[in-house]
Amino acid sequence: MEPIATVAPPYWLLAELTYRCPLHCPFCYNPVGYAAVRDELTTADWLRVMREARALGAVQLGFSGGEPLQRDDLEELVGAGHRLGFYTNLITSGVGLTAGRLATLKTAGLDHIQLSFQDSTRELNDFLSSTRTFELKKKVAALIKAFDYPMVMNCVLHRHNLPHVDRIIDMALELGAEYLELANTQYYGWAMKNRAQLMPTRDQVRAAEQVVADYRARIGKRCRILFVVPDYFEDRPKACMGGWGAVFLGVAPDGLALPCHNARDLPGLDLPNIHEASLADIWHHSHAFNAFRGDGWMQAPCRGCPEKTRDFGGCRCQAFMLAGDAAAADPVCAKSPLRYKIDAAIVSATTAGRLAPVEHPIVFRTDANSRVASGLGSAAQNTLGR
Ligand code: SF4
Ligand code: SF4
């Protein structure tokens, strides 16, 4: 495939430092088969990746995972990113963020921290993460404020915590959050595996939207609340990643370069590894980063659609998961002949106007369950849990 003639540089580099994480969220966006991924990049590898990304033109640098605090070279990497001129962001569950580490990260030049909660109640937070971390997260939130960082909270929403949206906002206000991201579950990775267990009803989503609107009117600029409507409940897809190979460059723990978080699960993509090519080469010339750039790859109905410059045909991973073809229109789109699959998933969440019971237990993101998913473990491990 010929590369697109002029390709703007990536805006941000997402360094997925590790798939290790002490939490076990059933909506985790990591690949379900992460247990098969070995050989994390070394500190020297990451330093090279950051230098090359900055030389390419990237300005934002996110450290995520898994839990990036599992890496004991995080402080060194943050310092290097800062000296290179990146705006650095730590995306964390808070587990491992002690006062000592925070002080070192601050000195190293860390600009921004995003702290995730699973719910406003200890019971649900600890159930969903499969850990006792609720009180610890609250302490970490206070530490973040004490170190004079803006408090940026994130909470993934689904059928279990959508009715708590008011309490989640109250908690964010109590903790002094300046920014709260209420991100409805997107169904990739572990969330797709648990879609029936997580899918809300339309009424739940509408009610939560109204609660958010009421709070916004009441609290003004005290805390900015972002409510990301689940794309299943819209009739147009989101402009995934701001366009394929347009602004986002992810690097996975083993060095695979990713045009989107879930690209590892797309068949037929020859994903490049940073061990085999420079980032510039990967960004400009690799098959994977050019596969869905521009609109030359599009089929009907996207090809002739006036909206293709706005949403780029939606999400390639969703197209593959639901249409079996990564180049199809995202089935979320009302113009897709497969929209009925989305509607069926929404309808299945409801029985006689109430949440439908779900037959299968939640599959938590655990090493044992990941080994099963990647063919490395037996089905028996799946029921043993963590
Ligand atoms: S979503 Fe949960 S399990 Fe996945 S990396 Fe984040 S904290 Fe860990
Ligand atoms: S047909 Fe394709 S380009 Fe048009 S709105 Fe739907 S997904 Fe977007």
Walkthrough of the structure:
By secondary structure, the chain is α/β, with parallel strands linked by helices. It has a domain at 12-233: Alpha-Beta Barrel (TIM Barrel), CATH 3.20.20. It has 16 helices and 11 strands. It has helices at 43-56, 74-84, 99-108, 122-129, 134-146, 165-174, 189-193, 195-198, 202-219, 279-285, 287-290, 308-311, 316-323, 339-347, 367-373, 379-384; strands at 12-16, 60-64, 87-92, 112-117, 152-157, 179-184, 224-228, 248-251, 257-258, 350-351, 354-355. The strands form 2 sheets. Strands 7-6-5-4-3-2-1-8-9 form a 9-stranded mixed sheet, with helices on one face. It has a two-stranded antiparallel sheet with strand order 10-11. Helix 1 (43-56) runs parallel beside helix 2 (74-84) and helix 2 packs parallel to helix 3. The longest helix is centred in the middle third of the chain and has 18 residues, at 202-219. The N and C termini lie far apart (43 Å). One iron/sulfur cluster binds next to loops.
Q: Residue share in helices?
A: 25-40%
**Main structural class:** alpha/beta
Counting H and I runs of at least 4 residues, what is the number of helices?
Answer: 16
Shape: globular
What does the radius of gyration come to? 21 Å
What binds here, in terms of ligands, is:
iron/sulfur cluster
- At the first level of CATH, what is the class of one domain? Alpha Beta
Q: Identify the CATH homologous superfamily of one domain.
A: Aldolase class I
Unreliable residue stretches: 380-386
Q: What is the arithmetic mean of pLDDT?
A: 93
Number of strands: 11
Please name the CATH topology of one domain.
TIM Barrel
